[in-house]
Amino acid sequence: MDHDMDHGMAMAPKSSSSTNDTMMMGQMHDMMHMTFFWGKDALILFDNWPAGNSGKYVLALILVFAMSILIEFLSSTRFIKPGSNPIVAGLVQTLLHVLRVGLAYLVMLALMSFNGGVFLVAVLGHAVGFFFRSRAFKKPHQDENFDLPPLSC
């Protein structure tokens, strides 16, 4: 009787999941870098873009640079005048916050390409944006109240 029960419980053959996992990792390795690299053969934000095209790569670097500057600009600019309607002021602050966070996430996703050029222009863009909001361009008694608090990491 025990023999009949064992017969119905035969073990399934081992799958070749380790082979499939190795193949998947190989394909993933071909698609994206996991360490910093240099060159125009990067995928930045969109599939097949810039895909080795020098002109599109330079455009991608310019866009990341501009987004980094804009993030710093949004962190330090007054768009709301004192005495504004509190509801309107709150909506403007919220929209500015959404724009700033969205741009920050886009820059972060561009950095996840692990391309050295993208990293350099992102850091340089934040530095240039910060420099223009630093003391170098402020009047001696300029009010430090901004519409948005600084991003915290």
From TrEMBL:
<dbReference type="GO" id="GO:0005375">
    <property type="term" value="F:copper ion transmembrane transporter activity"/>
</dbReference>
<keyword id="KW-0813">Transport</keyword>
<keyword id="KW-0472">Membrane</keyword>
<dbReference type="GO" id="GO:0005886">
    <property type="term" value="C:plasma membrane"/>
</dbReference>
<dbReference type="Pfam" id="PF04145">
    <property type="entry name" value="Ctr"/>
</dbReference>
<dbReference type="InterPro" id="IPR007274">
    <property type="entry name" value="Cop_transporter"/>
</dbReference>
<keyword id="KW-0186">Copper</keyword>
<keyword id="KW-0812">Transmembrane</keyword>
<keyword id="KW-0187">Copper transport</keyword>
<keyword id="KW-0406">Ion transport</keyword>
<protein>
    <recommendedName>
        <fullName>Copper transport protein</fullName>
    </recommendedName>
</protein>
<feature type="transmembrane region" description="Helical">
    <location>
        <begin position="57"/>
        <end position="75"/>
    </location>
</feature>
<comment type="similarity">
    <text>Belongs to the copper transporter (Ctr) (TC 1.A.56) family. SLC31A subfamily.</text>
</comment>
<keyword id="KW-1133">Transmembrane helix</keyword>
